[in-house]
Every structure is written in structure tokens, then in C-alpha cells.
Amino acid sequence: xxxxxxxxxxxxxxxxEQWPDCFADDCLYLVTTDENHRQGMQAxxxxxxxxxxxxxxxxxxxxxxxxxxxRYRHLIGLPVVLKREAGLxxxxxxxxxxxxxxxxxxxxxxxxxxxxxxxxxxADGLRLKQRIVxxxxxxxxxxxxxxx
Amino acid sequence: xxxxxxxxxxxxxxxxEQWPDCFADDCLYLVTTDENHRQGMQAxxxxxxxxxxxxxxxxxxxxxxxxxxxRYRHLIGLPVVLKREAGLxxxxxxxxxxxxxxxxxxxxxxxxxxxxxxxxxxADGLRLKQRIVxxxxxxxxxxxxxxx
Amino acid sequence: xxxxxxxxxxxxxxxxEQWPDCFADDCLYLVTTDENHRQGMQAxxxxxxxxxxxxxxxxxxxxxxxxxxxRYRHLIGLPVVLKREAGLxxxxxxxxxxxxxxxxxxxxxxxxxxxxxxxxxxADGLRLKQRIVxxxxxxxxxxxxxxx
Lengths: 148, 148, 148
Description:
148 residues; Nuclear Transport Factor 2, Chain: A
């Protein structure tokens, strides 16, 4: 829970350059919908399979001034540990994300669950080996930019 | 908190046949409004006083294909323990529930609090002897179907 | 987390006379926006620097029957401890607040984060020496009345 609190904080407080540090070097970050996920599709609205790709993504968003136009507020729920092995855990965690637009309006932007594989390396603490963001709605804004 | 995480998960992930297992055989599940609750009314929008009644309810919802039309996402807050005795606790816990409609729209559907009596039986772990779902709004959709 | 659960409960359950007890005698309670906060402005939509001021505020709201017209539901997220010293901790915690209007409508009213200084006095348990409520949106309802 402390890990997820930190994850949400770097995104919502506009310190998103620290967001890739939540992941292992070799990782999978995928944003998809429940419908696609149930059909076993690996494609998603966002796909990255290394920490370097996550860093590139953030750099591109900064250049495009995406963070000027809106911001997010994550509320991350209680985790359910599905499996635990030596140094590795599979965890499912629900979330709600509000989007606060530059004009002041606030809306419930996305709901869903994280399907995680978390590794515990003694040197770096907890890291995400996998975070599949399964959105409940089929129609997540395709302009989706800031990480969920 | 782990119990509530599991409670929300079986509902939101469409494994609602497991939802009655969260309750003791002899139980009270009531969905009501804050106004009705303060007036001491026992009637509610949903009333069940045994685990069998909860199972019947789920079976009926399945037959009516209710789960095709929309889904929920629960975010359950931090519990306040009001009373603790041998093997029994009274707990109050806030919640928000979003409804994701088939057309893709997401709305904040219900907010409120759970008033629980939780029993700890060594054989089965935690079970709800009582869950009164007190909704904040007077006008919860009367088509209310999926459990809160 | 137990402290924040209790904080939200007294506000949302209309026991708001107990809300000032969450604060130290000598305290700062400030409701502001992210934009103002980043510019270092101390002014805010609500400002109080003693527990007595908080009590006065609640008394005024009661007289004006503010609690008749709407209510809140807080969902408080996971805290991030930023600093910990003897008897004092700096903590940041995200929140979402829904407003339930008398006509039954529910809306996502405010999102943001609490910037807290929490003191642990042996006699009274945890108390807020400072709670700065940093709202994400610039346009929080100026009729803002019930504490966030």
C-alpha cells in the first residue's frame, strides 16, 4: 500500500519523471480495457516493455506540454494478494482516477484495476515487473496521455 | 481491510456467485438511505436475512442478464472499529461506487457507509453477520440490482 | 490511517462538533488551491490558526443550517510519510470528496491532498498541528462551507 501511495503521488504531483523508477528494468506496462483483456489481447492503448520506453514516453509528454492542460488524482484501493512466491507477488488493486481540467471542471475519468507482478529486490525495494491497467470502460479517451 | 478488498473484488470482477460467502449463514443484508436509517426504518431497497436469500438474489440477477448491461467499481475506505468483543466487531466503513455503463459512460453511482457486524469464526475466517448499506442520497436508482 | 478514518467520519456523519478535536490547540487549517499553494500564497478559501477558530466556524455553520442543504462523503487515500521526527510527522494524503445534494444528486466535488503535520501527544493521541488542504481544481465552489 505504501508503494502504491508513492506511485500515485509522483504522477499526481507532477513529478512524473520519477514514475519509471517504480518499474523494474525489464518490465511490462500495459493500459487496456476489461473487454480486450478478457479476450486475451495483448494490445492496448499504451504498451511499454522496458523502463527505457517509459522514460521516453514521459520525455515526449513533457515536450508536448501535456501536463499544462490537465492533471489527475488517483485514489488507489486495497490490494488483494493473489499469489506469493520467493521475492515475487501477484496483486490486484482497484483504482479510481479523477481528471481535473484546466478550466476547473473535475470528472471521474477512469476506474479499473491494476494486475501487478511485484518484485522485492533488496537493493531497490519494491518494483513492478508488470502492471496491466485494466480499465472498466471500453471508451477511455484515446488522447490518454498521463500514465494511469 | 483485506476482507473488504475481497468483498469488492468478487462483485466488481463478475464473480458475484462468491459474494454470499462473505456472509454468515444467519445474517442481515440491508440497503437503505441515511434518511430512512435515521428514522429507524428497517425496510430498505434490498432486504435479505439469510445467506440463502442472497444466493437466490444472485441467481435471479444472472437469469435476467443484469451483468450484461453495466458493472460497478467499488472503492472502500478505511474502517472505524466502533466496538470489539470476543469474536465480534462493529465496524463502520465508507465507500464510493462508480457505475460503468455498456455505452462506456462512467458515473459516481452511490456513496455511503457500511455498518457491519463482523464475526470471526476460526473455521471460515471473517464473515458478515450484518451489513447495513446506508446510502447518502435519497434517490438511489430503484432498479438497483448488483449488490453494493 | 485510523486517524483519517475518524476525521472523515465526524464530518460525513454530521458529528462535526467533534471535528476541531482532531486539531492541536495551536494549529493551522488552510483550504487552498494547488496553483495558490505553488505560488507560496498563505491566503486560502478557509483560514484558521487555532482550535477555537475552528469551533467558531462550526457553530456559525450550525446556525446557518448549512448541514440541511447538502452533505459530503470523503474517501481518503493512502498516506505518504515525508518526514518523521520525535513526536512529529509530515504526511501527504490524497482525497476525493463527493457532495450529495438535498435533491438527491451526487457529484465529485473536490479532489486534492492533505499536507499535514501530525503531533503525537501521549495524553491526547494524534492531533493535527497543520492541515493544508490543497485542492486540485482552481474553481472550488466559493460557497464552500462544510470542512474538507
